[in-house]
Design goal:
single chain; mainly beta; four-stranded mixed sheet; 14 helices; about 35% strand; flat
Length: about 1750
C-alpha cells in the first residue's frame, strides 16, 4: 500500500472501532419479510427504512449498509426510497433443499450513532418443479413363470417442492397384464410396486412397453413420466420336438466306419440356452449298440462306427433324445429304425474233419490224406462253394458228397527232397464279388533210412595255443544224416594211428555222441607244431552207414619265455662302465642294450624303457632299438657317474620282462671314447643276424598277408563262374600288433573274424571244402548241427500206411454211392441221454454192422452235443443244449451231423432242430433306473422314455407286458410305431410339486407270454427337480431403527433375514439396497449381500436428513431370480457434530510498522448450525500477540492492534481466531488471518563478511569474472535495492579501474586485463554498496585478490645433449647387467609447485631396447644384461614432462655406445669437476629436507590424532596470524571421518591444489555459495551448517604434502596462548551444496570454477571480529607458505614472515643475489622438482 494512504486507513480503522464499541450498548431491532421463490429482479419485499424507523434522507449520511451472512447479495436497498427489493434470482430448493423453513438473514448497520438491525426474509415455495423419475426408461425383466399377484418394486419419482406440491399420484398406461399399486407401511409411507395381473407367455408376447405417469398436488399440476420396458424372460416350458416320431433308414451291412446314417432335427420354442438342443441316446440304449453308432450332440448326425452283420442282426431300433440346455432340461424323443441290407460278406468256411499223417515216403499213389468239409453262411449263389489246391503238388482234391472233399496222394514222394508239404485248400463262393477262404494242411513225409552220415567239409583245421590244460576242448565235428530219429543218430570215433613213438589216443579223444575233440595232455609248440588224424561217423540205422573226415591241428606259440639280455652288464661291449664325454650334445648315442626272446612272433617283439624315468637324468633309451642316448647337453651338475636300470619287455600277454643295469661315467672330451654301435667281437654276430632275420621275417609275413588280402578282395569283387574246389592244404597267416590291418565287413562274407583281447593274434585261413557242403558255426561258432525232420516213431510206420490206404479206398468208392438225409427235433435244455431218434434204423443200416463198418458221426464245427449208441443205433443227447447260446435270436436253430460208414463208404447228412422253451425271464438292463423331472415347468401329458426289458426266448415266450405300481402322478404306456415296433414311455398325469413330494418310488414289472409266466422288475427312482417358483420372504415387511448421527463407518444398523422354500442355488439369497435415490442410499448405507447385515457406509447428518427409508431386496440365485422386499426406517438422532463457522467480513491490511495501537484490523462474524448450548459460541486468539479481540454485537467481533509492531523483527503475523461452542463435547473451528506489516526504510546495506579473498590464475582473459559480492538490506522494495561501485585508488602507476570493474546491480567483479603472476601477486581494493531509500544508506567491504601461477613454462634440459657430463656419447660396457646406471638427465622448470614437478620417459618405448629411464629421477639404466645383438650404439629420445594442466614437455637425445668391458668407462653419478659440487650438495640437501618434512608431517599427524582423541575443555580463541599452506599431488593425506568434525575436506579434480586457511569473519554472518559457487550471500539465521561428509583428497593433493607443506597441529590453529581450536576452511568441488563447510575453487586453481567462497563447519561458531586479519593463507599452484603472525597489542614487534619455494622467484632475482643465495635457491628448486619426484 502506498505511504500517502496511511493516514486515511488509520482514520477509517479508528472510526470502525468507535462504531463497534458504541453499538455494544445500543438496542437492536428485528424484521421478518416473505417473498415467493423465483421472484424477478426488482420485486418489492418491504419498506425497510420505514419499518426500522430510519429517515430515508439520513441513509447515506449515516453510512447505511446491509450484510448478508455467508450468501451472495440476493437483496438490495434503494437508498433513495429505503425499499428492500430482490437483487438476484431466488431458488428455494437451491437455498434450503427439502427443509420446510427457508429464510435469509440480513444485518443492517448504520452509524451516528451505530445501530445494527437483524432482518429475516422467508422464501416461500411455489410449484415450479415437476416430478422427476431417476431415469427416463426403466428396464424390468420378469420370468414368464411368475404367477399372478407377484409384485415388483419400482423406484418412484421425486419432487423438489415441499408440502402439497410434492404429493404424488401414479398412473399406468392401459394393458392386460400389469397395474401399479402404492403400499403403505406402519409409518404411512408409500412404496410403489408393479403388480402382475395375468400370467405371461414369452412365446406370445416377449416384451411389454408401458408408460408410468407421476402427478404432483400443486396448482397447476405438473407431471413426470418414465417408460417401463418389461422384457419377459424365457422359462423352460417347451420341450424339444422332432419333426418325425419315427425315422426309418436302410443301410448296407458293409457300410464303412463313419458313414452318415441320418441327420436328426428337433426344435424348441424357447430361447437362449433353453433353445439350445443336445442330442443323445436314451438311457435305455443298449451299451453294445453304443460301440456301433455315434450321435453328434450338437448337429444330430447319426453315424455308423462299428461292424454290421446281416446274418446276426438285420434290424436296429435306436431311442434318441433331444434335451435343451437349461438348468432344468426338458426332453423330446424319437425312434430311429435302421434296416440292414445283406451283401456277400461271408467267406466260405473250411473244416478238416479227418487226417492220416504223416505219409511214408514209400506210400503208393491214391492214398487218402485228409477229409475236408466246406460251408458258407450266405445263400443262393453266395452259398455255392468250389474247392481247389495249388498245382504242381503230388496231391489232388476229389469231391465226395455235397460239400465234402478228400485229399488224395497223386504220385510218389521223397522225404529227403521235400520233408513236408504245406497244402493250401481254397474255397470260393459264387457271389458278386466272390469271396474265398483258405486253410493250410501240413502233410509230413515219414522217413526211411537211405542216407549215410556226411561231414560238411572234408578237412577240419584247428589252432590251439601251447601249454593247454589236459582235457581242453579243441574242436567239435558234426556229421549230418538227412534221415530222422535212429536213422540219423550218429556216433563218433578216432581212427587210431601212431604219432612219433606214442599212439594218437594218448594225445586226443573224441566224444562218441557230441563229436567234441579233447586234448589229453598239454601240447608244446617246440616239440609238435601240426597233428593230423581222422574221425569216423556212423548212424544207428539198419543197416548202419558211416563217413570219415580229416582233422589238422596246429599248435600256436604262447608267451612262456622271458627276454634274455646278452652280454650281461655290458652296453658298449666292455665289462666296465661306459665313458661319456661332457661335451656330448643332445642325441649323442652312448650305447645299446641287446636282448633276445625264445618265443616267436608278437611274443618275441621287445620293448626297452628306463625302469625309473625320474632317475634317468639326461639319458633315454630307444623304445625298440635299445640305444642309450642323451636328451640334452651334459653339464657338470649331472655328476661324475650315472647308473641306469633298463627294463626289457616283450609284447606277449601277459608280458614278460628282464632288467639290465648300465653304468655311465662322465669324463672330459679328451678322455671320452666314442661308442661304436657296431659289434666289437665275433661273439655277437649270431645275435645280430638273428635280429635281422626276425625283422625280415616279420616284414615278409606282413607283406604276404597284405598281398593275400588284396588278391582275395579282388577275387570277391570280380564276378566269375563257380568252380569246384578239391581238397587242399590250409595256409596259416599270423600277424602281430605292430601293423594295423583293416578290412571292410561289406566284402567279408567268406572271411570270419573273431573278437579277442588286445594281445590276440589275427588268424586267417582258407580251407578247401566240397561244393555241396556248407560251413556253419552251430555251437560257440564250432559245432555243426544237422537239419532234423520228422515227428513220428519208426515202429508206427506200417500201421499209418495201412490206414491211409483204407481211407483212400473208402472215399473213392463213396463218390459213386448214393446218400441219404434225416431231420430230428429236440427241446432245448434236454438232459443227457434224452432220446432223439433211431438213427441206424432210419438210415437203413444194420445195427450189428455199425462197428465192423467203422460207423462214425462228425458234428460240423461244434462240440459233440449228440452221440450214437453202437449197440442200439439210437441217437441221444450227449451234452446240455441251450438254444439261446447256440443260435441267439434266430428263429430257426439246427445242428448238422455227418454220418460215415465204410464197406462200402457211405456219407449221410442228419439235421437236429433245437426247439425253444420259456426258460428265460424278462430282464431289465439295470435294477434301478433314475429319472429327474422338473416340477411345475413339466406339464401333464409329458412323456419320458424308459428302457424296456428283454427276453432271450423267441415267439410268444418273448412277448412282454408292463405294469406300473400305484401312483397318482404317473402311468405307463407302450407306443407302437408304423413298423409295429414298441417303445416304453412313462406318462405324467398331473403336475409335480417338489416342496410336497421331492422323490417318487415306483416299481415297474415286465411279464412274458410263455406258459408259466416269468416276470422281471425294475425300481424307478424319480427325483423332482426344483424350479425357482418361490420368492424369498422377509420375516417383517418393515423394520425401525434409531441411530446416532455420529455413528462411525461400519456400524451395524440391523440384520434382516429372508427365507426361500426352494433348494440349491434357488434357495441361496443375495441382499441389495434400493431407495428413492439409489446413489444417496448406497452412499450412506451398505448391506452384506450374503448375511443381510446393514451397516453405515457414509456420514449421517441430522441437520440434512432426520429419517432414512431404505428398501431392501432379497433375490435368490436362480437362473430366473425371484425377489422379496422390505423397508428399513432409520431415524437419525442429533448430536453436537457441527463446529462453529467463522467469516471475515472486513479487514484493513497491510498494517504499517509505525501504526499506533488501537487500530481496527478486521471484523469477524461467527455462527453455529446447532441450537441451544451447542449453538452458543465464544471467540479467542492466541496470547503474546500485539492484537486483541473485542466483541461488538451478538456474534460479531473486531480485531484491534494492541501495541506497536516492527517489520524487521516480525514481517507478518498469522493470527488464528478460534470459535468454540458450549456443546458436550465442545466443538471448535479456527480461521487464520495473515496480517502483513508494511516496510519503512531504516536499515543500511551490509556485507556478510568484512574481507573477501579471491584467487585468480595468471593469463586470465580480459573480462573474466573474478568474484560476486552481495550486500543485504533487510528493508523491502526500493529500500532494499542495492547498487555496487569500486572505491578508486592507484595500483602502482595505473588506476585501479584499469585492472577491475564491478557491475552496479549484480555485484560481479570482472578483470579488465590479463594478470601476470610475475608482475602482480596481490591486489587489494574496496567495494561500496548503497540502497535506493530516502535517505539512502551505504556500506563498504575489502577485497584481496591473489594471482596464481599458471603452467606457461616448458621444462629445460641442461646441459643439452649431455648425460654423464661429457659432450660425446655415453660408453656402456657389454658386460653390464640389469639395473646398471648409464647416466642421468637433468632438467628444470621455471614454473613452481605442481607445474614444476617433472616426469621422464622414453619417447618411443619400442626403440628403447635394453634401457629405461627413471620416471622421476631421470636416471638411464639397463633393464637386462646386454648382448651383442643389441648393436654397437643406441640413441634414446627422452621426453621430459611437467605435471601442469595442460602438460608441457621437452626432449633430449642421448647417444649410447656399447663397448667391451676393458673399453667401457663406468658412469659415476658423483660430480666430476668442481662445478658440480653445489649440485650434489643441493641434492643431498633436498633429500634431507624431504625426509625431515615427511617425518615432521607424520609426527604432527600422530600428535594431532592423540590430541583429538583426548577430550579437553573449550577455550575462547583470540585473533591470530595467518599461514598459507600449499600442497601438490605427490603426497597423500588421509584422516578418519569419525574424528574429522573440525576438518572439512572436499573433492576436486586430479590437478587441484589443497588450500587450507582460517580467515576471521564477524560472528553474525556466515560464508556461503549461493550463485554457481560464486556469489556470496549471508546466512540469515547466523548458525553454521554441517560440513559435507562426502570428501576425498584429489590426486593433486598428494604431490606437495611431502615437499612443501607447513601446517600447525595438522589443520587446527590456536589464536594465541591457551586459545581455543579453530576450524580450517577447506577446498571442495565435489558437492553443489554451498552451506556445509566447503571452499569453492578459484580461477587458476586447476578447476573450472571462477572464484573461491568459504564456509565454516560447526566446530567454530564464534568467528573473528570485523577488521581482523585471517591467520593463515594458501596460494594454490605455488609451493609458498605465507604465515602472518599478529603479535599482541603490548608487543613491540610487528613482523610477517614469508617463506617461498619455487623456481620463478629465484629466476627473477638470480642476477641480484649473491652466489651463496644462488646455491640456496638451487637447493630449494631441487627440493620442489627433481629429487622430490623420486619419492
Amino acid at each position: 500500500m502506498a505511504v500517502s494512504w496511511g493516514d486515511s486507513l488509520v482514520s477509517r480503522q479508528l472510526l470502525r472501532l468507535l462504531l463497534l464499541h458504541t453499538a455494544w450498548e445500543v438496542g437492536s431491532g428485528q424484521l421478518r419479510y416473505s417473498v415467493p421463490e423465483e421472484s424477478k429482479h426488482g420485486t418489492f419485499v418491504g419498506r425497510l427504512a420505514q419499518d426500522l424507523g430510519l429517515e430515508v434522507a439520513e441513509l447515506v449520511s449515516r453510512m447505511f449498509r446491509m450484510v448478508s451472512s455467508g450468501r451472495r447479495d440476493y437483496f438490495e436497498v434503494n437508498l433513495q426510497s429505503g425499499v428492500l427489493f430482490v437483487n438476484s434470482r431466488l431458488d428455494r430448493e437451491e437455498l434450503c433443499g427439502q427443509s420446510p423453513l427457508c429464510a435469509i438473514d440480513l444485518e443492517v448497520i448504520v452509524d451516528k450513532p451505530l445501530r445494527i438491525f437483524h432482518v429475516e426474509v422467508e422464501i416461500q415455495d411455489i410449484n415450479d418443479n415437476a416430478p422427476v423419475f431417476p431415469v427416463n426408461e426403466k428396464n424390468l425383466f420378469i420370468s414368464e413363470s411368475r404367477r399372478p399377484g407377484s409384485r415388483f418394486p419400482l423406484e418412484g419419482a421425486s419432487d423438489a417442492d415441499i408440502g402439497t406440491n410434492s404429493l404424488l399420484t401414479y398412473k399406468l398406461s392401459l394393458n392386460d397384464y400389469f397395474d401399479v399399486d402404492l403400499q403403505k407401511n406402519n409409518e404411512q409411507r408409500k412404496s410403489l410396486v408393479l403388480l402382475l395381473k395375468e400370467p405371461l407367455d414369452r412365446e406370445e408376447t416377449s416384451e411389454h412397453s408401458l408408460l408410468l405417469t407421476a402427478t404432483d398436488g400443486g396448482k397447476p399440476e405438473l407431471t413426470g413420466t418414465v417408460q417401463l420396458m418389461i422384457k419377459v424372460l424365457d422359462a423352460n416350458d417347451n420341450a424339444p420336438v422332432f419333426n418325425q416320431s419315427v425315422y426309418e433308414v436302410r443301410l448296407l451291412e458293409n457300410a464303412t466306419n463313419g458313414t452318415l446314417i441320418i441327420k436328426l432335427n428337433a426344435t424348441d420354442l424357447d430361447e437362449g440356452i433353453n433353445k439350445d438342443i443336445s442330442y443323445s441316446f436314451s438311457n435305455s440304449f443298449n451299451p453294445n449298440l453304443r460301440n456301433m453308432f455315434s450321435l453328434d450332440p450338437n448337429t444330430g448326425e447319426v453315424r455308423f462306427k462299428g461292424e454290421l452283420d446281416f446274418e446276426n442282426i438285420s434290424l436296429y431300433e435306436l431311442q434318441i433324445e433331444a434335451t435343451d440346455k437349461s438348468a432344468f432340461p426338458l426332453t423330446g424323443h424319437c425312434t430311429l429304425v435302421v434296416e440292414v441290407l445283406d451283401v456277400n460278406d461271408n467267406a466260405p468256411e473250411l473244416a478238416v474233419t479227418s487226417l492220416s499223417l504223416p505219409v511214408p515216403e514209400d506210400a503208393p499213389p491214391g492214398t487218402v490224406v485228409a477229409l475236408i468239409s466246406v460251408s458258407d453262411r450266405d445263400s443262393g449263389d453266395n452259398g455255392k462253394v468250389t474247392c481247389s489246391i495249388p498245382p504242381n503238388l503230388p496231391f489232388r482234391l476229389v469231391s465226395t458228397f455235397k460239400n465234402y472233399h478228400s485229399l488224395v496222394l497223386a504220385e510218389a514222394v521223397d522225404r529227403e527232397r521235400v520233408s513236408e508239404y504245406k497244402i493250401v485248400v481254397t474255397a470260393r463262393d459264387q457271389g458278386a464279388p466272390s469271396l474265398s477262404a483258405s486253410s493250410s494242411i501240413l502233410v509230413a513225409i515219414s522217413d526211411v533210412n537211405d542216407n549215410a552220415p556226411a561231414f560238411p567239409q572234408p578237412v577240419y583245421t584247428v589252432f590251439v595255443k601251447e601249454n593247454n590244460p589236459p582235457g581242453a576242448h579243441l574242436l567239435t565235428v558234426s556229421a549230418w544224416d538227412p534221415d530222422l530219429r535212429e536213422n540219423a543218430f550218429v556216433s563218433y570215433s578216432v581212427v587210431e594211428r601212431s604219432v612219433g613213438e606214442q599212439p594218437l589216443s594218448s594225445y586226443i579223444s573224441v566224444h562218441s555222441e557230441s563229436g567234441q575233440i579233447y586234448a589229453l595232455q598239454p601240447l608244446d609248440y617246440e616239440e609238435l607244431q601240426v597233428l593230423q588224424f581222422q574221425v569216423n561217423a556212423r548212424d544207428a540205422g539198419l543197416p548202419s552207414l558211416c563217413g570219415n573226415v580229416s582233422v589238422q591241428l596246429f599248435v600256436l606259440d604262447a608267451n612262456d619265455n622271458a627276454p634274455a639280455v646278452s652280454p650281461a652288464g655290458s652296453v658298449g661291449g666292455s665289462p666296465g662302465p661306459e665313458l661319456v664325454p661332457l661335451s656330448a650334445g643332445a642325441g649323442h648315442v652312448v650305447g645299446k642294450i641287446r636282448a633276445v626272446d625264445a618265443d616267436s612272433g608278437y611274443n618275441a617283439w621287445l620293448r626297452y624303457e628306463v625302469q625309473d624315468p625320474g632317475a634317468a637324468g639326461p639319458f633315454r633309451v630307444g623304445v625298440y632299438s635299445g640305444e642309450i642316448s642323451t636328451t640334452r647337453a651334459l653339464e657338470e651338475a649331472d655328476g661324475p657317474s650315472q647308473s641306469l636300470v633298463i627294463l626289457v619287455k616283450d609284447h606277449g600277454e601277459p608280458s614278460l620282462s628282464a632288467t639290465a643295469t648300465v653304468s655311465l661315467s662322465l669324463v672330459e672330451s679328451a678322455q671320452a671314447v666314442r661308442w661304436d654301435s657296431r659289434p666289437r667281437g665275433g661273439s655277437e654276430g649270431p645275435l645280430v643276424d638273428m635280429n635281422v632275420s626276425l625283422m625280415i621275417a616279420i616284414c615278409s609275413v606282413s607283406g604276404l598277408f597284405v598281398l593275400v588280402i588284396v588278391v582275395y578282395v579282388g577275387l570277391r569283387c570280380h564276378p566269375g563262374p563257380e568252380v569246384m574246389c578239391g581238397p587242399g592244404k590250409a595256409t596259416v597267416v599270423c600277424a602281430s600288433e605292430v601293423g594295423s590291418w583293416s578290412y571292410s565287413q561289406r566284402q567279408s562274407r567268406n572271411l570270419c573274424v573273431g573278437e579277442g583281447s588286445a594281445k590276440n593274434d589275427l588268424m586267417v585261413f582258407s580251407p578247401n571244402f566240397p561244393n555241396s557242403a556248407e560251413n556253419g558255426d552251430k555251437e560257440k561258432h564250432q559245432a555243426m548241427k544237422p537239419n532234423l525232420c520228422g515227428t513220428m516213431a519208426l515202429f508206427r510206420r506200417d500201421a499209418l500206411v495201412s490206414r491211409q490206404l483204407l481211407r483212400l479206398l473208402l472215399l473213392h468208392t463213396a463218390w459213386e454211392v448214393g446218400s441219404g438225409q434225416l431231420r430230428y427235433s429236440v427241446p432245448e435244455e434236454s438232459k443227457h441221454g434224452t432220446f432223439v431218434g433211431r438213427l441206424a434204423q432210419d438210415l437203413g443200416l444194420e445195427v450189428a454192422e455199425l462197428v465192423s463198418r467203422m460207423f462214425r458221426m462228425v458234428s460240423s464245427g461244434r462240440r459233440d452235443y449228440f452221440e450214437v449208441n453202437l449197440q442200439s443205433g439210437v441217437l441221444f443227447v450227449n451234452s446240455r443244449l441251450d438254444r439261446e447260446e447256440l443260435c441267439g435270436q434266430s428263429p430257426l436253430c439246427a445242428i448238422d451231423l455227418e454220418v460215415i460208414v465204410d464197406k462200402p463208404l457211405r456219407i449221410f447228412h442228419v439235421e437236429v432242430e433245437i426247439q425253444d422253451i420259456n426258460d428265460n425271464a424278462p430282464v431289465f438292463p439295470v435294477n434301478e433306473q433314475n429319472l429327474s423331472i422338473a416340477e411345475s415347468l413339466t406339464l401333464p401329458g409329458s412323456r419320458f422314455p424308459l428302457e424296456g426289458a428283454s427276453d432271450a426266448d423267441i415267439g410268444t415266450n418273448s412277448l412282454l407286458t408292463y405294469k406300473l405300481g400305484p401312483s397318482e402322478h404317473f402311468t405307463i404306456k407302450v407306443q407302437t410305431n408304423e413298423e409295429q415296433s414298441k417303445s416304453l414311455v412313462l406318462v405324467l398325469k398331473q403336475s409335480l410339486d417338489r416342496e410336497e413330494t421331492p422323490v417318487h418310488h415306483l416299481l415297474l414289472t415286465a411279464t412274458d407270454g410263455g406258459k408259466l409266466e416269468l416276470t422281471g422288475t425294475v425300481r424307478l427312482l424319480i427325483t423332482v427337480l426344483d424350479v425357482n417358483d418361490n420368492a424369498p420372504s422377509f420375516n417383517q415387511s418393515s423394520y425401525k431403527v434409531r441411530l446416532l448421527e455420529n455413528a462411525a463407518k461400519g456400524t451395524m444398523v440391523i440384520k434382516v433375514n429372508a427365507t426361500d422354500l426352494d433348494e440349491g442355488i434357488n434357495k441361496d439369497i443375495l441382499y441389495t439396497l434400493r431407495g428413492v435415490t439409489q446413489s444417496s442410499v448406497s452412499a450412506t448405507f451398505r448391506i452384506d449381500s450374503n448375511t443381510g447385515e446393514i451397516s453405515v457406509n457414509g456420514e449421517l447428518d441430522f441437520e440434512n436428513t432426520k429419517l432414512h427409508e431404505v428398501q431392501v431386496e432379497a433375490t435368490d440365485k436362480g437362473n430366473f431370480p425371484l425377489s422379496g422386499h422390505c423397508n428399513v426406517f432409520v431415524e437419525v438422532l442429533d448430536v453436537n457434530d457441527n463446529a462453529p463457522e467463522l467469516t471475515i467480513t472486513s479487514h484493513s491490511l497491510p498494517v504499517p510498522e509505525d501504526t499506533p495501537p488501537g487500530t481496527v484490523v478486521a471484523l469477524i462474524s461467527v455462527s453455529d448450525r446447532d441450537s441451544g448450548d451447542n449453538g452458543k459460541v465464544t471467540c479467542s486468539i492466541p496470547p503474546n500477540l500485539p492484537f486483541r479481540l473485542v466483541s461488538t454485537f451478538k456474534n460479531y467481533h473486531s480485531l484491534v492492534l494492541a501495541e506497536a509492531v516492527d517489520r524487521e523483527r516480525v514481517s507478518e503475523y498469522k493470527i488464528v481466531v478460534t470459535a468454540r461452542d458450549q456443546g458436550a463435547p465442545s466443538l471448535s473451528a479456527s480461521s487464520s488471518i495473515l496480517v502483513a506489516i508494511s516496510d519503512v526504510n531504516d536499515n543500511a546495506p551490509a556485507f556478510p563478511q568484512p574481507v573477501y579473498t579471491v584467487f585468480v590464475k595468471e593469463n586470465n582473459p580480459p573480462g573474466a569474472h573474478l568474484l560476486t559480492l552481495s550486500a543485504w538490506d533487510p528493508d523491502l522494495r526500493e529500500n532494499a535495492f542495492v547498487s555496487y561501485s569500486v572505491v578508486e585508488r592507484s595500483v602502482g602507476e595505473q588506476p585501479l579501474s584499469s585492472y577491475i570493474s564491478v557491475h552496479s546491480e549484480s555485484g560481479q567483479i570482472y578483470a579488465l586485463q590479463p594478470l601476470d603472476y610475475e608482475e602482480l601477486q596481490v591486489l587489494q581494493f574496496q567495494v561500496s554498496a548503497r540502497d535506493a531509500g530516502l535517505p539512502s544508506l551505504c556500506g563498504n567491504v575489502s577485497v584481496q585478490l591473489f594471482v596464481l601461477d599458471a603452467n606457461d613454462n616448458a621444462p629445460a634440459v641442461s646441459p643439452a645433449g649431455s648425460v654423464g657430463g661429457s659432450p660425446g656419447p655415453e660408453l656402456v660396457p657389454l658386460s653390464a647387467g640389469a639395473g646398471h646406471v648409464v647416466g642421468k638427465i637433468r632438467a628444470v622448470d621455471a614454473d613452481s609447485g605442481y607445474n614444476a614437478w617433472l616426469r621422464y620417459e622414453v619417447q618411443d618405448p619400442g626403440a628403447a631396447g635394453p634401457f629405461r629411464v627413471g620416471v622421476y629421477s631421470g636416471e638411464i639404466s639397463t633393464t637386462r644384461a646386454l648382448e651383442e645383438a643389441d648393436g654397437p650404439s643406441q640413441s634414446l629420445v627422452i621426453l621430459v614432462k611437467d605435471h601442469g594442466e595442460p602438460s608441457l614437455s621437452a626432449t633430449a637425445t642421448v647417444s649410447l655406445s656399447l663397448v667391451e668391458s676393458p673399453q667401457a668407462v663406468r658412469w659415476d653419478s658423483r660430480p666430476r669437476g668442481g662445478s658440480e659440487g653445489p649440485l650434489v650438495d643441493m641434492n643431498v640437501s633436498l633429500m634431507i629436507a624431504i625426509c625431515s618434512v615427511s617425518g615432521l608431517f607424520v609426527l604432527v599427524i600422530v600428535v594431532y590424532v592423540g590430541l583429538r582423541c583426548r577430550p579437553g575443555p573449550e577455550v575462547m580463541c583470540g585473533p591470530g596470524k595467518a599461514t598459507v599452506v600449499c600442497a601438490s599431488e605427490v603426497g597423500s593425506w588421509s584422516y578418519s571421518q569419525r574424528q574429522s568434525r573440525n576438518l572439512c575436506v572436499g573433492e576436486g579434480t586430479a590437478k587441484n591444489d589443497l588450500m587450507v586457511f582460517s580467515p576471521n569473519f564477524p560472528n553474525s554472518t556466515e560464508n556461503g555459495d549461493k550463485e554457481k559457487h560464486q556469489e556470496m550471500t549471508p546466512n540469515l539465521r547466523g548458525t553454521p551448517k554441517q560440513p559435507n561428509p562426502d570428501w576425498r583428497y584429489s590426486a593433486s593433493l598428494r604431490a606437495g604434502i611431502q615437499s612443501a607443506v607447513h601446517m600447525e597441529d595438522a589443520g587446527v590453529l590456536r589464536g594465541g596462548p591457551g586459545g581455543p581450536e579453530q576450524l580450517w576452511p577447506t577446498v571442495s568441488s565435489a558437492t553443489p551444496e554451498p552451506e556445509a563447510g566447503e571452499v569453492s575453487p578459484p580461477v587458476g586453481a586447476g578447476v573450472n570454477s571462477n572464484s573461491w567462497t568459504f564456509k565454516y563447519g560447526p566446530g567454530n561458531p564464534k568467528q573473528a571480529g570485523p577488521g581482523e586479519l585471517p591467520d593463515k593463507f594458501i596460494i594454490p599452484g605455488s609451493p609458498a607458505i605465507i604465515s602472518i603472525r599478529q603479535e599482541p597489542p603490548n608487543s613491540q614487534t610487528d613482523k610477517s614472515d614469508f617463506i617461498t619455494f619455487g623456481k620463478k622467484e629465484e629466476t627473477k632475482k638470480k642476477k641480484k643475489k649473491k652466489k651463496g643465495n644462488k646455491t640456496q635457491e638451487k637447493k630449494e628448486k631441487g627440493n620442489s622438482t627433481t629429487d622430490n619426484s623420486d619419492q
